[in-house]
Amino acid sequence: MSKATMNINFMGARKPLGILSVLLVIASVALLVTRGLNLGLDFTGGTTVVVKSPVDVELSQARADLAESGFSDAVVQHYGSPKEVNIRVAPKEGDDADTIGHDVYAALKLHNEDLELLKVEFVGPQVGDELRDESGTAMLLALGLMMLYVWFRFSNKFGVATVVALFHDVIIVLGLFSLVQWPFDLTVLAAVLALIGYSLNDSIVVADRIREDFRNSRQNDPTQIINNAVNATFSRTINTSLTTLLVLVALYFFGGEVMRAFSEALLVGIAVGTYSSIYVVSNILFMMNVSKEDFLIPEPEEIDEMP
Description:
By secondary structure, this protein is α+β, with helices and mostly antiparallel strands. The protein folds into two domains: 13-39 and 127-293, Up-down Bundle (Multidrug efflux transporter AcrB transmembrane fold); 46-123, Alpha-Beta Plaits. It is 64% helix and 9% strand. The chain has helices at 14-34, 41-44, 59-68, 100-109, 125-153, 156-180, 186-216, 222-254, 256-287; strands at 38-39, 46-52, 75-78, 84-89, 116-123, 183-184. The chain has a four-stranded antiparallel sheet with strand order 3-4-2-5, sandwiched between helices. The relative contact order is 0.14.
């Protein structure tokens, strides 16, 4: 369907979807407060061990072997290939950080003598706390800079609407991670920061068209103007989202465990971001009583040079 013939009444569903967005944000905040995030070792500290076997490693068997040796809470994942395994063990009081990695390796080697130790890394709790604090600061800084950019490029109302949409996307993604307790580490944080950029870009495309339609359209009904603008940009939005989703689906299925959390965060984030670019931004604009006067270009004042 061409842009000229597309005439979907997007704004007809804006009120119920606006209520849905509010409920999702409230539920996400409640989950973050009550359950929190399942922080990975990047933030909590702990030991990471990478081993390699000449044959494929069964993760269930590796977990059972570690449980027999007292590492029942270890996180075991394939690392790039079925022959390589990444084991992460959270820190415990009384454990020797210098030996715990080799103890994990020894527990696995009991059942696989050909196992090779590739890497042992330890992240102390203090380093994890610093990473967590700095990561939160980076996220807030990114949101703040985005707000300033939109504020100066468009108008105060668009600045508020776009930043609300960004917070909406980030909070819902974090709420989902809290609900299902997916591990939240630096890789996921990178995905959230990428989501902020993606969501902002999509919102700017829609906002730019809305601004131009308000300036050039002879209509005075904000609902119809925004509806026309969304219809005009909808095919571009869908094409961008689908091509990005294809890459993320490939990463999810073929990128291994290392990229799975990254792709999960962005898969959810892109779906939420595409939705918010249309409905969250428009709902906020309507709440602030957007009108044609908000986008009129002021005419330069004539200066009488005569004495």
